[in-house]
Amino acid sequence: MDDRKSEIENWDLDAGIYMSFYLLKSSLEEDADTMLELDSPESRNESCRSFVGRLNESLAVWGDRLPVEARVAYTKMAEEICELLLSGLSVYPDRESQLRCFMTAFKAPLPEDVRSSHLQDAVSLFSLYLSETGNQTSA
To answer: Under DSSP, is residue 14 helix (H, G, I), strand (E, B) or coil?
Structure first.
């Protein structure tokens, strides 16, 4: 962590969030046996939702006092975590679980263009979900 310390402008302010980000990112990128609590798809989403909640809480608490550089860092962290979460949707057992991952991403402090892209993907997934449930009820 000491080698990463120089990347964080205000270590006291950002250390907890950054460490959470680094651990979550590592566990999302690695095999499931490295982090047992992320074995299930639901726990992956819950961990990401918790991290996004911490980012949002920090942004709300600090408000305008949070330096622009920290806001940018928070946005980049949110983008990376959401990208990792959404890139692994195939491991989720059903469409509802997949849609819950998009709900997590929509709560993240993301730029509008990234949010719009995720929204388009969610609409496509929801359309697929509706067509699948429509086929099940008509059968």
So the answer is: helix
Residue 88: closest CA among 126, 42, 55:
42
What is the rounded CA–CA span in Å between residue 121 and residue 103?
A: 12
User: Which residues are within 8 A (CB) of 4 and not within 5 positions of it... i.e. 6 or more apart?
Assistant: 18, 22
Element at 127 (helix H, strand E): helix 112-138
Amino acid identity at 65: R
Residue 78 contacts residue 108 (beta carbons within 8 Å): yes
What is the CB neighbour count within 10 angstroms for residue 11? 12
CA dist 116 and 24 (Å) reads 24
**pTM of the predicted protein model:** 0.78
Q: Which of 58, 25, 19 is nearest to 44 (CA)?
A: 25
58-75 burial, b at 16+ Cβ within 10 Å, e below that, comes to bbeeeeeebeeebeebbb
Predicted confidence (pLDDT) per residue in 73-103, tens digit: 999 999 999 999 999 888 887 888 899 999 9
Radius of gyration of the chain (CA): 17
Identify whether the C-beta of residue 55 lies closer than 8 Å to the C-beta of residue 17: yes
